[in-house]
Design goal:
Number of domains: 2
Radius of gyration: 21 Å
Order of helices and strands: EHHEEEEEHHEEHEEEEEHEEH
Strand content: 25-35%
Helix content: 10-25%
Number of helices: 7
Structural class: alpha+beta
Length: about 325
């Protein structure tokens, strides 16, 4: 699927609070109501980065609607969530790509049947924990998210299991005392560098980005180190000094090296996006290392996660392509 095949629409003031089905009829005048319904049912509509299958969902002015050329794959099953560490206070898991960490505020009142269409990681996890603990009846209490990974990002996450653990871990993430290292594949020849900027929620086109005004936004710092040059691409390591929403994706894109598979931040505020011919299966970003201080014992905890199969196969394809060019 090429990027040009996806259609992206921004909600206009006159479309505020209209249903997504009604507005899709405006944007796609050649489609009948039944065809619009089928688009939604076949997992081909996203609203602000999340799958939407509800024809009656009301749109906000900040929403961005994407009609995909091909259906999104079904969400990962419980078996895809691997527990790396579990005790009465915390659980460390490897998050699979394709699932969001938590549910958005406007989705929290959805009935259970509707949630099952696109479950979130914090909803799947109690069932995974119950199986791990050998519970035959009932589920453990809900887990508590203290940080997040994007839907397409895979890798290590920690959830709190108690209020106290949530408070202690949350403070560590707010103070940026946790250890987080990511692996990513970016376009171009990426040099070793430290990227620092002030991130804002809207750079001028309803997307997050950096501001030149030092008095606005939130300070974000990413330390980048190239690991392997792969022709037109680079495997890089990104260590977070801070942990802002989409920080790595924004920083690398703004420095001319958007991640392979990136669709949101590959489009600069001004000018044309760089073409991505890498064939990445998704945004090529993986949370490879996670470290924190245990909220009860005070022990320093550190975990590592290898690249998942989809990104390993992607890297192998890039390496083979480089090898084939070298033989020409």
């Amino acid at each position: 699927m090429t990027d040009a095949a996806d259609q992206i629409f921004k909600v206009l003031p006159r479309q505020l609070d209209k249903t997504v089905a009604a507005v899709l009829r405006e944007w796609l005048p050649g489609q009948s109501w039944s065809q619009i319904q089928q688009l939604l049912k076949s997992r081909r509509v996203m609203v602000s980065g999340n799958l939407c299958m509800d024809a009656g969902r009301r749109l906000r002015l900040v929403d961005v609607v994407k009609v995909l050329a091909r259906p999104m794959p079904p969400p990962p099953k419980e078996d895809a969530v691997r527990i790396r560490y579990l005790d009465k206070d915390v659980v460390v898991v490897e998050k699979p790509a394709g699932v969001t960490t938590t549910r958005h505020a406007e989705e929290r009142d959805w009935p259970a049947r509707r949630r099952q269409v696109q479950p979130t990681l914090d909803e799947l996890l109690p069932r995974v924990i119950a199986r791990k603990e050998g519970r035959r009846k009932g589920l453990p209490p809900p887990v508590r998210a203290v940080h997040r990974l994007d839907r397409e990002t895979s890798g290590l996450m920690v959830f709190a299991r108690t209020v106290k653990a949530e408070q202690v871990l949350g403070e560590q993430f707010r103070r940026h005392t946790t250890h987080r290292r990511y692996l990513a594949v970016a376009l171009g020849a990426v040099a070793a560098q430290t990227i620092e900027s002030q991130l804002v929620r809207d750079r001028g086109d309803n997307r997050r980005g950096s501001s030149k005004d030092a008095n606005v936004g939130r300070r974000a710092v990413t330390h980048v180190r190239p690991l392997e040059r792969l022709g037109d691409y680079t495997l890089v390591e990104c260590a977070l000094e801070t942990g802002r929403t989409h920080q790595i994706r924004i920083h690398l894109a703004e420095n001319g090296h958007p991640l392979c598979g990136e669709k949101v931040y590959r489009q600069p505020l001004f000018g044309q996006p760089k073409p991505d011919r890498s064939g990445a299966p998704r945004v090529a970003l993986h949370a490879a290392e996670l470290g924190f201080v245990h909220p009860t014992s005070g022990e320093t905890m550190k975990f590592e996660s290898p690249l998942p199969q989809d990104l390993r196969e992607f890297l192998d394809r890039l390496r083979r392509a480089v090898g084939a060019k070298g033989k020409d």
